[in-house]
Amino acid sequence: MDNFFESAYSIAQQIKDNSITSKEVVSKYFDNIESKNSELNAFLITDKQAAIRQAEIVDQKIQAGQQVGTLAGLPVAIKDNICTDDFTTTCASKILREWKPPYNATVIQKLISQDAIILGKTNLDEFAMGSSTEHSAFGPTKNPVDPSRVPGGSSGGSACAVKTDMASVALGSDTGGSIRQPAAFCGIVGMKPTYGLVSRYGLIAFASSLDQIGPFGKTVKDCALVLNAISGHDPYDSTSLDIKSDDYLQYVDRDLKGIRIGLIEEFDEVLDVSLRENLESATNLFKQNGAEIVKVSLPYVKYALSTYYLIAPAEASSNLARFDGVRYGLRVDGDNVEEMMINTRTQGFGQEVKRRIMLGTYALSSGYYDAYYKTAQKLRTALISDFKKVYDQVDVIICPTTPTGAFEFGAKLDDPLQMYMSDIFTIPSNLAGHPAISVPFGTDSNGMPLGIQILADGLNDSKVIHVGSALETLRTEG
Ligand code: GLN
């Protein structure tokens, strides 16, 4: 039974074959939640009884020979910034502590329609702003590989839950790296799909032009399985793409013949020795197995981090204006409406969220708009055209997911710029709206897991799955 938890895909098969019941599977995951969650704090809320009840319904359908969905009976965890009508949706913020959405996000409806079992909601940096899950109002999540270190963020709870078999797969959201960075820090796979491929309806907005929901899994195949279920056009999301659906599972386990892989010249300077060596060993594996390696240049990538930290806070300052004590969540009274709003927002938001709101409001204010926000938009466009030229030459780009492995609690908390640097390699694909995946590969000098990231052009999600899955296979063989 040791390898039981290693593949959600195979668990789903076993449930469908009736060789194990969903109820048994869900109970196993709850055993892990009961023994591990109080120490690790991955889940903010779970509902065992409801999960078991749903599992029994799926089991009955299977036993009666009825058609079931692709995720039938599979236990899934959901980042707590995705709306669920059965659970509170807090964004790990005091301002939404008690808030129970009146509806399910589209991704939740899609999971349910494939007969998945939703176990509960996972911890995050407040409103998905952060890289360590230390900014949660409900305490940090710990890294399961070394509990003195952060699990990454902002989707740290989802990454931790999958790594520790508290969930078979999970959903996160990625605005600048929040799926891929915690996946790398915890040693699992995490994918950010093309912008618009997965509906954002019911994802509480941080930076709407960058946010995207995506899967966490132990394997690339597990992520492909989930992506199949959650992707597709949604009339409730005006940025959702109306394109033909694909079966991402068919890109798993393919060879690399004819695949051209780009290495970004500009990243050479920022890589320290251990990261460079790790990237080299991945590159060598690709080369030995038939891929062609090409040096490529993205001259504007050096501005990506600064561009992101103007655009994301600008959008956040506008999106978070709705938390005013009137429409949602917390209300702290005052002598008049203005005081009530000030008191609510002062007490409801944490420090990092306030910092982003101030940054964003400043960048958007008249007089500074041209210098900051408009310049950032121009740089975003320049980066996109850089990428366009590169994808004429290569199928995918590879680079490290993060500049370091998981760091210790408190290491970057007082130095926001250092914290922001965690996303230097993940942010470019968010700015461009492109897909990217992080696959575990190698360790840092502390023995903490590292990730290799595979990037592709918009709507080439199949390519990141193809090359990601190949890397996974080569890593295990090598
Ligand atoms: N760490 C980045 C930030 O703090 C990215 C967050 C995210 O992707 N949600 O903004």
What would your notes on this structure say?
By secondary structure, the protein is of the alpha/beta class. The protein has a domain at 4-251: Amidase signature (AS) domain (Amidase signature (AS) enzymes). It has helices at 8-16, 22-40, 48-63, 106-113, 156-163, 180-186, 220-230, 273-288, 304-319, 337-348, 351-364, 370-393, 416-421, 427-432, 461-477; strands at 43-46, 75-79, 117-122, 169-173, 189-192, 213-217, 260-264, 292-296, 396-400, 436-443, 449-456. Strands 1-3-2-4-6-5-10-11-9-7-8 form an eleven-stranded mixed β-sheet, with helices on both faces. Helix 8 (273-288) links the parallel strand 7 (260-264) and strand 8 (292-296). Helix 9 (304-319) packs across helix 11 and helix 9 packs across helix 12 (370-393). The protein is globular and about 65 Å long. The chain starts with 7 loop residues before the first helix and ends with a helix. The model has no long low-confidence stretch (mean pLDDT 97). Glutamine (GLN) binds next to loops. Glutamine is lined by residues 128-131, 154, 173-178, 206, 312, 423.
User: Which percent range fits the helix content?
Assistant: 25-40%
- The helix/strand order is HHEHEHEHEHEEHEHEHHHHEHHEEH
Helices, by number, come to: 15
Q: Got a strand count? A: 11
Ligand inventory reads: glutamine
Quick one: biggest sheet? Answer: 11 strands, mixed
CATH architecture of the domain at 4-251: Alpha-Beta Complex
Rg (CA only): 21 Å
Indicate the low-confidence ranges by residue numbers: none
Shape summary:
globular
State the CATH topology of the domain at 4-251: Amidase signature (AS) enzymes
**Structural class, judged by helices and strands?**
alpha/beta
Biggest sheet: strands side by side, in what order? 1-3-2-4-6-5-10-11-9-7-8
Give the termini separation: 25 Å
Give the percentage of residues in beta strands: 5-15%
CATH superfamily of the domain at 4-251: Amidase signature (AS) domain
The first-level CATH class of the domain at 4-251 is given as Alpha Beta
Mean pLDDT: 97
